[in-house]
C-alpha cells in the first residue's frame, strides 16, 4: 500500500470510527468541534554477543485521536512498525450508545450481560436497549454473535470455520427495599446455510440454544440477606448442516437433530453484613455439560460450598478474613476419575498508624482424586481404583515501616513467602514434592527538596525437590535525580544475581549482571498551551556468566507529543 493510500485510509477511519455512549440530556449545542490525542515514536537498537533474541533495529509509531462534536466522541488509534502495520478501532468497528434519562440504546458492536449462566458479556453486532423506569430494569438485545468464517484449505495457519450465529434476549427485573426478583431469556442459533462448503472432516455442527434464568434476593432486618438464581439451558446440535431454518429446540426434527440436551445450574447464598462482622455461605452447582452460546467460556460439572467470615477490629485497623470451601466434580459419576477439592485461605492486615503496615496470608488447596481402573469396558471392579491427594500450601508475609519528615523520608520493606506442593498416593507414598522459599528486603531514602531517591535491596529464592536444589541470590541498587525543576530526570540502577543448581551430585552455576540508565525530559508548558512534549533515552545492559554465556545491550529513544 502506498503512503498516499495509507494516509487516505487513516483519515477515512477517523471519520467512520466508533462513537462512545453519550447522554442527550448532557448535550451542549454550543460546544463545537474539539480534538485531543497524542503521537509517539520509539526506536530500539539491539546489540548482542551471543544468540540473537530480537530484531537489531525496531521502529514504532503510535497515535490516538479523539474528535468530539456536541459532546459526542469519536476515538481512533493506530500503530505502525517496521515489522507490520495495524489499525485498531475502539469497541470493535462501530458503537453508539445514546441515553436519555432512564433509556439507553446500544447500536453497533456492543456487549450486554443478563446472567453468568445465560448471556454473559458476549459481543454482538446489532441493537440493544436498557430501560430503568422507577423500580424496573428491562433489557433486550438482538444481533449477530458470530460471523460466518469459510474454511481456507490453502492457508498456512489453521483457520477455524464457523457458522453465522444470531442471538436475541430479554431481561426483566423489579427491585424494592425488600429485595429484588428477575427473569431473563436468551436464545441463539447458527445459520446452517451460512457456509458455502461443509466437509465431514471439519467436525462442526450448527447449534441452537435457549437459556432461561430466574433470580431473587431478599433482605431481612437490614442486616441479613438471601439470594438465589436458577438457570437451565437447552442445547440442540443439528445433524444435518443444511437443516430447516425453522427448527427450534422445542420443535426438533428427527432427521435434523443429532442431540438435544437440557442442563441446569443453581447459585444460592445466605449471609449477614454488620459493621464489624460479616459472614456468607454460598452454594453453587453447575451440571455436567452445561453450556450457553451467550458466553465465551464456561465451567461446568462442579459443585461448590463456601464459607466466608470476616471481621474488623481495633477501630478498623485490623481486618481478618477467611474463606473455606469444598469443590467437587464428576457429579453424574460418568467420568473415570472424581476429585474432591478443599480450598481454604486466611488473611490478616494490620495498619496501626501511618508508619507501620503489616499483612499475612495463608492458603491451602487440597484435592482428593479417585481413579477407576477399567481396562475391560464390560467389567467394573469397584475395588480396582487408585486414590491420591494433591496439596498446595502458600504462606506470605509483608512488613513496611516509613519514617522521616516532609523533606527526608525513609522506607523499609520486607516480605517472605513459602509454597509447598506434593501428591500423596495410597500407602502414604509422596510424589511431586516441591518446596519454594523466597525473601526480599529493600530500603529507600529520598530527599524531596533535591528530588533525589536511592533504593537498595536484596532477594533470595530457594527451590527444592527430592532430585533438584536451586538457589537465586543477589543485591540491587537504583538512584534517580530530578534536574531543572524536575523537567529532566536521570536514573541508573544495577542488579546482580547468582544461581546454583545441584542435581544428581553435579553443580552448575551462573551469574547475571543487569545495568540500566534513563533520561526523561518533560518541559513545562503554559496553562494556555495546547501542545505537550516528552522525550526519553534509556539503555539496558545484560551480561550472563557461566553456562550459556552471552551479553546484550539495548538502547531506546522515544518522543511523545500530546495536544488538546
Write the layout of secondary structure elements.
Elements: H1 3-16, E1 34-48, E2 57-69, E3 72-81, E4 85-88, E5 95-96, E6 99-100, E7 103-113, E8 120-131, E9 136-146, E10 164-176, E11 179-191, E12 207-220, E13 224-238, E14 257-273, E15 277-286, E16 302-313, E17 318-328, E18 337-350, E19 356-372, E20 385-404, E21 408-425, E22 430-447, E23 452-464, E24 468-483, E25 488-503, E26 506-521, E27 531-546, E28 550-563
Antiparallel strand pairs: 1-2, 1-28, 2-3, 3-4, 5-7, 6-7, 7-8, 8-9, 9-10, 10-11, 11-12, 12-13, 13-14, 14-15, 15-16, 16-17, 17-18, 18-19, 19-20, 20-21, 21-22, 22-23, 23-24, 24-25, 25-26, 26-27, 27-28
Report what the structure shows:
By secondary structure, the chain is mainly beta. It has a domain at 102-275 and 283-296. Helix content is 2%, strand content 64%. The chain contains 1 helix and 28 strands. It has a 28-stranded antiparallel beta sheet that branches. Strand 17 and strand 18 form a beta hairpin. The longest helix has 14 residues, at 3-16. The chain is globular, with a radius of gyration of 30 Å. It starts with a helix and ends with a strand. Mean pLDDT is 81; it is low at 1-30, 84-92, 242-250 and 372-385.
Amino acid at each position: 500500500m502506498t503512503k498516499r493510500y495509507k494516509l487516505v485510509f487513516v483519515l477515512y477511519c477517523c471519520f467512520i470510527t466508533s462513537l462512545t455512549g453519550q447522554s442527550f440530556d448532557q448535550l451542549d449545542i454550543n460546544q463545537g468541534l474539539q480534538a485531543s490525542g497524542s503521537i509517539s515514536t520509539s526506536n530500539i537498537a539491539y546489540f548482542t554477543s551471543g544468540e540473537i533474541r530480537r530484531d537489531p533495529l525496531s521502529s514504532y509509531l503510535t497515535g490516538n485521536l479523539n474528535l468530539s462534536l456536541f459532546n459526542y466522541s469519536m476515538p481512533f488509534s493506530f500503530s505502525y512498525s517496521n515489522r507490520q502495520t495495524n489499525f485498531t478501532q475502539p469497541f470493535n468497528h462501530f458503537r453508539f450508545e445514546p441515553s436519555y434519562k432512564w433509556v439507553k440504546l446500544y447500536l453497533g458492536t456492543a456487549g450486554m450481560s443478563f446472567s453468568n449462566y445465560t448471556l454473559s458479556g458476549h459481543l454482538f453486532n446489532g441493537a440493544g436497549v436498557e430501560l430503568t423506569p422507577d423500580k424496573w430494569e428491562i433489557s433486550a438485545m438482538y444481533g449477530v454473535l458470530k460471523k460466518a468464517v469459510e474454511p481456507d484449505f490453502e492457508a498456512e495457519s489453521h483457520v477455524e470455520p464457523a457458522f453465522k450465529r444470531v442471538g436475541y434476549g430479554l431481561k426483566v427485573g423489579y427491585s424494592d427495599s425488600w429485595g429484588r426478583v428477575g427473569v431473563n431469556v436468551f436464545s441463539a442459533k447458527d445459520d446452517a446455510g451460512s457456509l458455502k462448503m461443509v466437509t465431514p472432516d471439519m467436525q462442526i455442527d450448527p447449534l441452537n440454544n435457549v437459556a432461561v434464568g430466574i433470580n431473587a434476593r431478599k433482605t431481612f432486618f437490614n442486616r441479613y440477606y438471601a439470594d438465589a438464581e436458577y438457570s437451565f439451558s437447552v442445547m440442540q446440535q443439528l445433524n444435518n448442516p443444511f437443516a430447516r431454518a425453522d427448527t427450534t429446540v422445542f420443535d426438533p426434527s428427527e432427521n435434523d437433530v443429532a442431540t438435544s440436551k437440557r442442563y441446569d445450574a443453581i447459585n444460592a447464598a445466605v449471609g449477614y453484613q454488620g459493621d464489624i462482622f460479616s459472614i456468607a455461605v454460598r452454594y453453587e452447582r453447575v451440571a455436567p455439560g452445561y453450556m450457553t452460546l451467550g458466553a465465551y467460556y464456561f465451567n461446568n460439572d462442579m459443585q461448590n460450598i463456601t464459607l466466608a467470615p470476616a471481621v474488623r477490629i481495633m477501630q478498623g485497623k485490623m481486618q481478618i478474613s477467611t474463606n473455606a470451601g469444598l469443590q467437587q466434580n464428576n457429579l453424574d459419576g460418568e467420568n473415570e476419575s472424581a476429585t474432591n477439592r478443599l480450598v481454604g485461605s486466611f488473611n490478616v492486615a494490620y495498619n496501626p498508624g501511618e508508619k507501620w503496615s503489616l499483612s499475612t496470608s495463608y492458603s491451602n488447596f487440597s484435592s482428593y482424586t479417585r481413579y477407576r481402573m477399567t481396562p475391560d469396558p464390560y467389567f467394573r471392579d469397584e475395588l480396582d481404583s487408585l486414590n491420591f491427594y494433591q496439596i498446595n500450601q502458600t504462606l506470605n508475609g509483608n512488613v513496611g515501616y516509613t519514617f522521616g519528615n516532609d523533606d527526608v523520608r525513609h522506607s523499609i520493606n520486607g516480605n517472605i513467602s513459602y509454597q509447598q506442593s506434593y501428591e500423596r498416593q495410597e500407602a502414604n507414598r509422596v510424589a511431586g514434592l516441591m518446596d519454594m522459599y523466597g525473601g526480599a528486603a529493600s530500603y529507600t531514602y529520598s530527599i524531596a527538596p533535591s528530588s533525589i531517591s536511592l533504593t537498595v535491596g536484596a532477594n533470595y529464592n530457594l527451590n527444592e525437590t527430592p532430585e533438584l536444589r536451586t538457589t537465586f541470590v543477589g543485591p540491587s541498587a537504583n538512584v534517580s535525580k530530578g534536574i531543572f525543576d524536575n523537567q529532566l530526570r536521570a536514573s541508573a540502577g544495577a542488579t546482580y544475581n547468582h544461581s546454583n543448581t545441584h542435581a544428581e551430585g553435579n553443580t552448575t552455576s551462573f551469574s547475571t549482571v543487569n545495568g540500566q540508565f534513563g533520561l526523561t525530559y518533560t518541559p513545562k508548558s503554559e496553562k494556555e498551551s495546547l501542545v505537550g512534549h516528552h522525550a526519553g533515552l534509556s539503555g539496558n545492559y545484560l551480561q550472563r556468566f557461566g553456562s550459556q554465556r552471552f551479553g546484550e545491550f539495548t538502547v531506546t529513544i522515544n518522543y511523545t507529543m500530546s495536544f488538546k
